[in-house]
Amino acid sequence: MMVRWIAGGRVIDPDQDVDRLADLELADGKVVGLHPVGTAPSQEDTLDASGRWVMPGMIDIHVHFREPGQEYKEDLLTGARAAVAGGVTTVVCMPNTMPAIDKREVVGLLRRRAAQIGLCDVQVCGAISRGLKGEELADLGEMALAGAACFSDDGHAVMNAGLLRRAFEYASDLDLMLMLHEEEMDLSNGGSMHEGAVSSRAGLRGIPSASESALIARDLEIAHEFGGRMHVCHMSTKRGVELVRAAKARGWPISAEVTPHHLFLTDLAVLESHYHGHTKMNPPLRPWEHVEALREGLKDGTIEAIATDHAPHGDVEKDEAFGCCAFGVTGLETSFSLTRRLVDEGVISLSRAVELHTSGPAKVMNWNDRGTFRAGTRADVCIFDPERVWIVDPSVGFSKSVNTPFTGWELKGQVSTTVFGGRVVYHEGKPAA
Amino acid sequence: MKPVAGLGQLKSLDDLTNRSGWPHSLFSTDGLPRAAALDIIDTAREMVGVGRRRVKKLPTLRGRTVINAFFENSTRTRVSFELAGKRMGADVINFSASASSGAKGETLGDTARTLAAMNPDLIVIRHPDGGAPWFLRERVGCAVINAGDGINEHPTQALLDALTLMEQLGDLEGRTVAIVGDVAHSRVARSNIHLLHTLGANVVCVSPSTMRPAQMDLALKAQWTDDLDALLPRCDAVMMLRIQRERLRESLFPHNREFAIRFGLNPRRADLLPSHGIILHPGPMNRGVEIEPAVADGDRAMILSQVENGVAVRMALQLMLLGRSES
User: Fold this and answer.
1) Is the dihedral angle over the CA atoms A362, A368, A370, A375 positive or is it negative?
2) From CA A401, how far away is CA A395, in angstroms rounded?
């Protein structure tokens, strides 16, 4: 169903500094503009949003939809369903699929498949290195022509500094940024959780926080000297926040994202869960001082986006002892409801919360056609019922996988309707495909 | 696989309660109640006596099935558990498998459910990953004993060490025990630290900083030093840990000779102990690395008593976990 008006809701558009009751007019898949409440005619293609929050469709710049090759974990359809159930209308898919997204054919295939599904905009992040091996450049130029939005070897750090230099230089010509998984592998050294008091108590090998910050520091220097836009994926450490903050203060073009799980959970969850695989992710959950630093980074603008790193895994990967099981958790369906909790906890304002899911990530990606209700932008809308209380239960979710660490959490507020390009793609528990 | 629900309640390591699994299982000595530990040790004392009889077999666990599931090579511990189960009259089956699902083609979850379907009464698990006993217990109905999980814990080793210490020193309240070696990567050390604390002893760990657990004071409430000579005169016992060759590759120490010079227990150092001081080693020893042969074979060394006590502790545990639940 195409929507013409979304009437009577509390429209929150941080990009235009808007937070007021208004009627939102859409036409031909684009935003027309905001009008005083009562403007919208009462007709079939008017959605009543009274009592709801009306926000630009959310943008999640870090997801794993596992296609091609690992469709038993997730595929473009189930991933897109999970996205729209979370109010997300644009995702950026990471290239660590099987085979990796390192060629134009794979980029093109995914773009076409996603367009056929039509639930949301699936943007593709191409690999930096061929096969994600960190040895030689992937086909960056051809992938850019096929529509790749950015490049990353996510899941792996680019340990070869010389290769990273060339990737920065080459990607600059294409005006695309590198999204970096920052992990000094020799410091991680096979660890499976954060290294600290909890890993010492739990008897697990640790991943020190310097594993992240040391590589951020290195890569900042490389990006600075050789030019290039650098984005730090899933930042998890206090020192990482400090390094990015300092680089920004010097005016360096750098951005960073943080995941919901790093904003709410600490490494204690590993012990609390008795070594449950759903508490294992990379980067790992860190102690509270890191959580606080990340939250501070959200407040002061050091971090411009919340991205889920939605990483579905099946039992084959997760039904294993802690050291053997795969890293990663899902997140799309709980993402904004969790961020709203940060508002309730007094960490950030509602406007900032929305910004971190809309215009924040849009600016990271250098997109000006979404993440806002400015006239002429794509008619992507997330309608959120702020009063609805729900309990996270992945068995009734849309992802194929159930590996969320937030099972059983009572969350306040849930997406009721998602509009993508003027069309209702999700409404009250039902995706349109 | 069932998701884990309601995370985020635990706010501090200090709020961690009993993780031992006792009395249905034994995963850990972390939080094992003092009374339970003493009960196990007392029962084990009786089992030492049984082991010295001409006829060593008890009928107590006749008809019960014990599976020793070993996902990591082990001879000593497996033999000790096997002997213990057989002496208690149980049917003991040994099961070895690779830990990686890639190599064996099924997940640990699959293996656990397969074992559970055979209706064992007890599974003894040795696994290269920390937490594997908890994982197993979630998926089987029977009792589980941790026979060593990665670098995490080896609770039966700690219990047999405590029995050995108490045989020689009596009550451990106020005693000082040094643990020397790769504490960071030692399941023996971790289980011993917890249990010795519960029994009132002071524990001082001795190692180079490369072998010291991160934030050890917060995590394990144990003291640390790298000066073994200064510590020995006030130790009632010293436990030497086995130095593992793979730690060389990780550059935790430059080479064996240097380790022996800085931390090895040689006759000169052994003489620094007070006259009642004793020496333990979980075995297998690297003679000439962490312990010199003259010390290992000397009067203070309790190494063979430890082995004997190991069987007794494992008999006691099987009796207590299985025997007493019999209706």
Assistant:
1) positive
2) 8
A155-208 pLDDT, tens per residue? 999 999 999 999 999 999 999 999 999 999 999 999 999 999 999 999 999 999
Q: At what angle do helices A161-173 and A210-226 cross, to 10 degrees?
A: 50
Radius of gyration of chain B (CA): 20
Residues of A in contact with B18 (CB under 8 A): none
Average pLDDT for chain A: 97
Does residue B16 sit at the A interface (CB-CB below 8 Å)? yes
Q: Catalytic one among A13, A153, A309, A380? A: A309
**Catalytic residue (choose from B24, B34, B53, B76):** B76
Per residue in B75-134, pLDDT tens?
999 999 999 999 999 999 999 988 766 566 789 999 999 999 999 999 999 999 999 999
The closest alpha carbon to B224, from B173, B264, B189, B187, belongs to B189
* B77 catalytic per annotation: yes
Same domain, B146 and B164: no
**Within a domain: B301:** no
**Whether residue B254 is found in the same domain as residue B240:** yes
If asked whether residues B25 and B108 sit together in one domain, one would say yes
Do A197 and B190 count as a contact with CB atoms less than 8 A apart?
Answer: no
| Residue B31 near chain A (CB below 8 Å) | no
DSSP-assigned letters across all residues of A198-225: HHHHHT--EE-THHHHHHHHHHHHHHHH
Pairs across A and B, CB distance < 8 A? 138
Q: pTM to 2 decimals?
A: 0.96
A394–B3 CB contact, under 8 Å: yes
- C-beta separation of A37 from A5 below 8 A: no
Q: Indicate the burial class of B127 (C-beta count within 10 angstroms; 0-12, 13-18, 19 or more).
A: buried
Kind of pairing between the strands at B143-149 and B122-127:
parallel
**How many separate domains does chain B show?**
2
Set out the domains of chain A in order of their start, with CATH numbers: 5-54+378-431 (2.30.40.10), 56-364 (3.20.20.140)
**CATH number for position B46:** 3.40.50.1370
B144 and B181 fall within a common domain: no
